[in-house]
């Protein structure tokens, strides 16, 4: 971030509830913080959904040091691992924030959002680390993905191209600021364009209505948020009118069920667009603002991103037939450089010719649109000689009136190799749809070999902070 041009100096850059900072005020606060940080090797950021978190990350970028966003809801064991692994020289936090004992004697700087100081001269290179974001750690301790400054810049500029994103846009979001979605796309994105972000603090449909009615043009959310919107729309005409005013509604971090897509489109006349990315790659694909917002797809590769699908033996799939399932591999300037202190994991994440193995399975439609069918580790089911993606079965199940939530996994089967298991949260717990009815429902919509062989009923599906279903936890249910 450099000195804002004169025409945006007085424009509101950040709004968190009633608190705002103009570009001039943000530059002053971040500049003052950068001077206090000095040449610290790495800084932790206690990433609460507050103005101070945005100032802290901006200040670290100005200082040319890597920021490590921390989830305030993390347990002490996870925090201890991240602090030990990243070895920050200090922690940045909002004044009055109560840090847990695991921080010990680590020096702390309270972020003053009203401070004023000069913007320092740029002294960091494009390849220098900007952020170290820790993965969810579903298969072991969280790994720190080192994101260089060029990855942030190229991703945000590619999204500006895809979404026709300009300084006139005002973004409303209520996402956590310790993940790529809320922090990079949802805060640094508007700042790079010279626009504005209004953070809700805590997401609510009422907050979305308020901001869209007050000039917001874009909304970012995760499927859980859009599901709540879809559920509220039939009884809330003001919500439908507000969403209809938005220029762009974007969903990410997990697949948005087709049923919710269609309910929102029917009520508002606006279609939610989806994009696809990961902590390690930032953004890879998106439906374009000037393209078709096709439910169930994540669009086409972004400018600068190379994408291919490969078989298990590494053979590239060249068919764009909407059926051939392969693992997504990507190359481009949007990628991370390494897992911190994990050369073994870094090496394993890339092919010999430099492609990143995402672990996500997809097909490509004849026009190049990418459709994610699930994770290689948890969502690719090999049953009766077929490779089946869990995602399309979940979407089919969600089209049944008796299903509120659905997840699909595979489990060993002596005859089929794996059998398809559906985990269902019924719309009416007192009268759940019968297993046979659900199996027939899927078979009619997809194909007989994709029908669930086992149906298990739950009160709720286990989810993480971003609303993603934690399928590994289903084995313990």
TrEMBL record:
One Pfam assignment: AMP-binding
Residue ranges constituting the AMP-binding enzyme C-terminal domain according to the UniProt record: 392-468
InterPro entries associated with the record: AMP-bd_C, AMP-bd_C_sf, AMP-binding_CS, AMP-dep_synth/lig_dom, ANL_N_sf
Gene3D superfamilies the record matches: 3.30.300.30, N-terminal domain of ligase-like
Domain (AMP-dependent synthetase/ligase) ranges: 10-340
Highest taxon of source: Bacteria
NCBIfam families with a match to the protein in the record: PRK07787.1 (NF005858)
UniProt record similarity statement: Belongs to the ATP-dependent AMP-binding enzyme family.
Name of the protein: Acyl-CoA synthetase
UniProt source species: Streptomyces musisoli
Lineage: Bacteria, Bacillati, Actinomycetota, Actinomycetes, Kitasatosporales
């Amino acid at each position: 971030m450099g000195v804002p041009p004169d025409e945006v100096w007085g424009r509101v850059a950040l709004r968190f509830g009633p608190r705002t900072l103009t570009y001039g005020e943000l530059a002053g606060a971040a500049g003052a913080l950068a001077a206090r940080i000095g040449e610290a090797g790495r800084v932790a950021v206690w990433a609460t959904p507050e103005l101070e978190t945005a100032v802290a990350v901006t200040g670290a970028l100005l200082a040319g040091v890597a920021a490590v966003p921390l989830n305030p809801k993390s347990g002490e064991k996870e925090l201890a691992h991240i602090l030990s692994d990243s070895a920050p020289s200090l922690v940045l936090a909002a004044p009055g924030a109560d840090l847990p004992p695991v921080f010990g004697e680590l020096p702390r700087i309270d972020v003053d959002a009203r401070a004023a100081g000069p913007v320092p001269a740029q002294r960091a290179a494009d390849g220098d680390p900007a952020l170290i974001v820790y993965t969810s750690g579903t298969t072991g301790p969280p790994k720190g993905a080192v994101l260089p400054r060029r990855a942030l810049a190229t991703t945000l500029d590619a999204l500006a191209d895809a979404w026709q994103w300009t300084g006139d846009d005002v973004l409303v979001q209520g996402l956590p600021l310790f993940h790529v979605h809320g922090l990079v796309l949802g805060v640094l994105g508007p700042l790079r364009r010279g626009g504005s972000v209004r953070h809700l603090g805590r997401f609510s449909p009422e907050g979305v209505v308020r901001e869209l009615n007050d000039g917001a043009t874009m909304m970012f959310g995760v499927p859980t948020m859009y599901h709540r919107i879809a559920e509220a729309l039939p009884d809330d005409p003001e919500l439908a009118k507000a969403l209809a005013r938005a220029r762009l509604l974007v969903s990410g971090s997990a697949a948005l069920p087709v049923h919710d897509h269609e309910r929102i489109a029917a009520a508002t006349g606006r279609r939610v667009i989806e994009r696809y990315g990961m902590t390690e790659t930032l953004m890879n694909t998106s439906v374009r603002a000037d393209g078709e917002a096709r439910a169930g797809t994540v669009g086409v590769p972004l400018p600068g991103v190379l994408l291919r699908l490969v078989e298990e033996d590494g053979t590239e799939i060249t068919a764009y037939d909407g059926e051939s399932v392969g693992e997504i591999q990507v190359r481009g300037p949007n990628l991370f450089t390494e897992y911190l202190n994990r050369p073994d994991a870094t090496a394993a994440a890339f092919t010999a010719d430099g492609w990143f193995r995402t672990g996500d399975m997809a097909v490509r439609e004849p026009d190049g649109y990418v459709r994610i069918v699930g994770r290689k580790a948890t969502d690719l089911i090999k049953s009766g000689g077929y490779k089946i993606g869990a995602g399309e079965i979940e979407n089919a199940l969600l089209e049944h009136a008796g299903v509120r939530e659905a997840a699909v996994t595979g489990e060993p089967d002596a005859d089929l190799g794996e059998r398809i298991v559906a985990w269902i949260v019924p719309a009416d717990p007192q009268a759940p749809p019968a297993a046979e009815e659900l199996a027939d429902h899927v078979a009619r919509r997809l194909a007989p070999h994709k029908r669930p062989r086992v149906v298990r009923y739950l009160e709720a599906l286990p989810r993480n902070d971003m609303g993603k279903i934690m399928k590994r936890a289903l084995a313990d249910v």
